[in-house]
Amino acid sequence: MTAIDNILEIKSISKFYPGVTALKEVSFDVRRGEVHALIGENGAGKSTLIKTCSGAISPSEGKIVVNGESFECMTPKLSEKKGIGVIYQEFNLVGDLSVAENIFLGRAIRSGIVIDQKAMEKEAKRILGSLNIDIDPRTLVKKLSVGYQQMVEIAKAVSQNAQILIMDEPSAPLTNAEVESMFAIVDQLKKNGVTIIYISHRLDEIFRLSDRVTILRDGQYVTTLNTRETDKDELVRYMVGRELTEIYPERSETCIKDEVIFEAVNVSGNGDKNISFQLHKGEVLGFGGLVGAGRTELAELIFGMEPKQDGKFILNGKEIAPKNPKAAINHGIGLVPEDRKTKGALLGLSIKENINMPIYPRISKGTVIDTKKEYETADKYKNEISIKTPNLSQLVKNLSGGNQQKVILAKWLAADVDLLIFDEPTRGIDVGAKQEIYMLINSLVEQGKAVLMISSEMEELMGMSDRIIILSEGCITGELNKDEYNQETIMRMASVERKG
Amino acid sequence: MKKVIDVVRNRAIYVFLLVMIIFFSIMNNNFLTANNILNVAKQVSIFGIASVGMTYVILTGGIDLSTGSLISFVNIVAAYFMVNMNLNPWITILLSLVISSLVGFANGWIIAEIKMPPLIVTFASQTIFGGLAYMLCNGRPISRFDDAFLKIGQGYVGPIPIPILIMIVCFAVGAFILIKTFFGRYFYALGGNEEAAELSGINVKRVKYLVYTLSGFFAGIAGIVMLSRANTGQPNAGLGYEFDVITCVVLGGVSVNGGSGKISNVIAGVLIIGVLSNGMILMDISSYTQMVIKGLILLLAVGSDCIQQAKLLKTKTATA
């Protein structure tokens, strides 16, 4: 193989941190014009690897060869000059600037020293239009949903004429419809000769998009396969080093009781209108819909984060009106939020402190903490849901995504809640840990708790829910029982437009 | 990883303290005498006491600029109670502490309920209570107190001056609240991530009331000790004290971004400032030069904190 075939060659890249080897002698080639998928569990080194390519960090050993030019290490400027663009999981957008200003951030179109707002908006509109994105370029970015914000990121990279576009989990926050248009964008980019390195947890996407796929495991290169010549099982086997029997674990049929634990009656507020539903003991009630359909907003109402304007919530037969999360928790409600790192876990505190946080007044004499109880509670739930850690004083920020999620879950088990709300329970969590989270949800309902699960992953929604309620534009547009599930019906209900 | 950095950092501050002590001992024969050491401790007692409340505030990610003015205000209020109103010293102390706690509570209430930045709220109350102190005494010092009251600032238990004992008690109580009670956990949680803290069932507003109230309370104690020591109530007694207090706390490794820090290290921070001030006075360094040096040390302390944070962030994102 000659160097000209390969637009990018990773040559024996290693990255060491004190006590941690993030990457160990990783080598592979990316061919010009291909869509090259990069997969691996969390902590496999994907993020570190792309950061060495983008110049965000410098490798301890090894070389990066771009277009035949060899580099010991990259800098952000150099990589941009060499045509490498990256769409990170965290967006680099300025909320208070418009879409157009964000696309041209740092490269504003000017006439003289004055920014030419009109020209910039026109050019932004053209780029967005070419990607079938329907946003007014004058909209402030902070007003956009996560899905649209990501589209602005993609448009920004497109406007920079990147030759190699690295996409880090681009589909994670998107709804199905949005994922489809993102795929269309990727196809179009490929037609224009852009090489794409596509990182994803979702194996379906790998088969839909990629020509070849490289697997990393524990910071090491495993193999590169032609996508056409492999299948899901093989990829999963390489990723985790073990077979997964089935994706969604069964739970006992008799789990659901007739008893209603939670009920919403004509609830309005926070953008939602006239929401009514019942949730039974031992039931997993799924909430489907597009991004911005009002599902997270509903969770915020129930958890006392936002005031409702009308209607009532009934928990265990009694009407409740929690005015803040603390009150909701005291009623027996827990929330596992969508954004684990900024809302769910207290990253700078220990596992022990995170698990005990809602119940400190309960395990204290007066205000003095009973440290023995504190330790025992944490230890009990650590073992019960197998949080992998050498000790309970470990800071939560040092845990993997899956283990962080388990700590949040342990917190609600310790608080002994009756109703647990999951908002995107497995976002950004690797395949193996996902499985564990699903099993934990099952054991929760088997213990008689009720689960309200918001999910944008169609498979997860159908695989885990006993019943699905679909929201669109803040209203309930459908309810499906298990025997009625199918993707088309859900999609159709999710795209119902509000009338009047 | 964090542990290693913590250990190095913990030691760094004690090493720094030791180096300074050695330096000043060499420069001046009078420095390392029992008398002078007690002197240092006595000098730091006032901002040492106030630093306990400030530690809580900074831990939660806030700041309290009203401390110095509140010390002045309590100074005048207490003097006014005793001299102009002939109140009993003990009732005076009680009332003064209630008043200073209420001022702190007001700061906390405005910060939590109106969601104004702590910097602005406490800056405003710094100006307000600085002004009120002058209004109450018409700008003139108030003096002549009971001997019983003067004991607080000037008395001894055995060889140890009482202000030092009060400071030790404040540090002990401060550490107890932080380590043993769940309020301490709440302070760290709030400083680490306010939103996640709220979603974990912490009543964030109440915690804010509490830390600013405690900051006011400890400033009140500092004000009383100062009044007794100086034997005269001055409307500018605490002028600029918040600067020393913040320097001690930050020098003691409490992160200006909130979420991490320990009382034991704050004590080291307090001692460093004390040794530095005392040493510089013994060396006849002018007060202007002292200001410059203290400013540089504050910059150094915050700077090293920010560098640590940046390093931690880097390792964190890289291993994620």
UniProtKB/TrEMBL annotation, chain A:
Q: Which Pfam families match?
A: ABC_tran (PF00005)
UniProt xrefs under InterPro entries: AAA+_ATPase, ABC_carbohydrate_import_ATPase, ABC_transporter-like_ATP-bd, ABC_transporter-like_CS, P-loop_NTPase
Which keywords belong to this entry? ATP-binding, Nucleotide-binding, Repeat, Transport
Q: Which GO terms describe its molecular function?
A: ATP binding
Q: Where is the ABC transporter domain?
A: 8-243, 256-498
In its UniProt entry, what is this protein called?
A: Sugar ABC transporter ATP-binding protein
Which organism does this sequence originate in? Answer: Aequitasia blattaphilus
UniProtKB/TrEMBL annotation, chain B:
Q: Which InterPro entries match?
A: ABC_transp_permease
The family database entries (Pfam families) matched by this protein are listed as: BPD_transp_2
Give me the segments passing through the membrane.
Answer: 12-31, 37-58, 65-83, 89-112, 119-136, 156-179, 209-227, 239-256, 263-282
> Highest taxon of the source?
Bacteria
Q: What is its main location?
A: membrane
Alphabetical list of CDD domains matching this protein: TM_PBP1_transp_AraH_like
UniProt entry keywords in alphabetical sequence: Cell membrane, Membrane, Transmembrane, Transmembrane helix
Membrane topology term reads:
Multi-pass membrane protein
Localization annotation: Cell membrane
Name the record gives this protein: ABC transporter permease
